[in-house]
Amino acid sequence: MRQGLSASNWKSIKPALLIGVALATLQIFSGLAAYYQSKNLLWDSKYQTAQNLTNGLIVSVVDQMVSKDYGSIESRILQTMSNEEVASVVLTDTTGKVISALKREIGKEPHLLFNLDKVDPPETQQNTLQTRDDAFITTWMPITLGVHLGWIRLQTYNALDTAELGSLRLQNFLLSGLSIVSGLVILGVFLWRAYFSVIQREYMVEAKLDDASKRLLQAEKLASLGEMAAGVAHEINNPVGYVSSNLTTLQKYLTAYEEVLNAATTDEATITALKKKVNFEFIRHDVRNLVNETQEGVERVKTIIKDLKDFARTNNSASYLPSDIHAGLNSTLNIANNQIKKHATVELQLGNLPLVECVASQINQVLLNLLANAAQAIPSGKEGRI
Predict the structure, then answer these.
(1) Beta strands 384-385 and 344-345: pairing type?
(2) Structural domain harbouring 342
(3) Do the domain assignments include residue 76?
(4) Per-residue confidence in pLDDT tens, the chain, 386 aa
(5) DSSP-assigned states of every residue in 47-111
(6) What's the pTM value of the predicted model, to 2 decimals?
(7) Domain count, the chain
(8) Whole-angstrom Cα distance, residue 44 to residue 37?
(9) Helix, strand, coil proportions of the chain in percent (round to 5)?
């Protein structure tokens, strides 16, 4: 059996191995794609930073452009260049003539450019223009205040932070490694499932057999209940019948009471005659009997229904619990009474019995089968005793 299982499982292992290799390859390429995507996001962040710096500088110098306060303009430019990513800032008029220009070398303080008189601004005045070369990201943005006042050219260093790139590489390496490990774990699960598939099938068959056994037991209960249905209906119908009759009589009594109460304002002789007419004294004593009988009938119905529900309830856990055997016997006799009394009378001689560890529903089923078989074994036309 082991040799057959091994050969069978190796056929399942081959596709599992292919799936594992495919997953590992996919994760490696996914890691590379994530690395380059993250790198592009860093470039996008640098473009956005340059645009934000340029836009903020325009907001801070536009009023000084109108008033031609060049000292304040240079001060605002120096504030912008406090960001070490900024390499140079050039402020021009609409024709490209330089109004103010500052530049910094890497690791040094910004300084004015005196030898820069004119630059070529973009041809359009509507949009921000950004370009990138080996050294800088160059951002052109128009200065407008109702009319076109000039241009700002801001250059930032375009080199990506080596620490950020190293962190990206490490993150993607770790993610790829974790993905490959997860793929190997999945592959291991495939192999485990292939090897133990037969054992799992056996467990499943046993579980199905156990479930079928429980269903068969419940079907036997339902079959017994079906046979007793007519008898139980008769047992319930008897108390319901006299409860209904008592309620009809009670309604008549209430009508008589109302007549007597309505006559309370008349003379005593009329009341006495009315009481005699409706037989008031009998009604007064019989009302309590009617109520007691009705209550007994209702309790009888409730008891039968409760016993029937207890008998029909499925005990899926089959737990062994302390149970009263006498109570179970009385409950079973209560729902089987109509079926048994046609053939025999039941005499109970119960002794002192402690609580017994058992599955009560199964014991009740056994008692019912014994009683039903005993009653059915009595010849027709004869009265037996159980």
Answers:
(1) parallel
(2) 315-386
(3) yes
(4) 444 444 554 565 566 667 767 766 776 677 667 667 777 777 788 888 888 988 988 888 888 888 888 888 888 888 888 888 889 999 999 888 998 899 988 778 888 888 888 898 888 766 788 888 888 899 999 988 888 889 999 999 887 655 666 676 677 667 766 766 776 777 677 667 666 675 677 678 788 888 888 777 766 666 665 666 656 666 677 777 777 777 777 777 777 776 766 666 667 777 777 777 777 777 777 777 777 887 887 787 777 777 776 665 544 456 788 888 888 888 888 777 777 777 788 888 888 889 888 888 788 878 888 888 888 788 877 778 88
(5) HHHHHHHHHHHHHHHHHHHHHT-HHHHHHHHHHHTTSTTEEEEEEE-TT-BEEEEEE--TTS--E
(6) 0.38
(7) 2
(8) 10
(9) 65, 15, 20
CATH number at residue 39: 3.30.450.20
13 & 159 share domain: yes
Residue 266 lies in a domain: no
* Residue that finishes a domain, picked among 135, 150, 178: 178
Q: Is residue 247 part of a domain?
A: no
Cα separation, 316 vs 22, in Å, equals 46
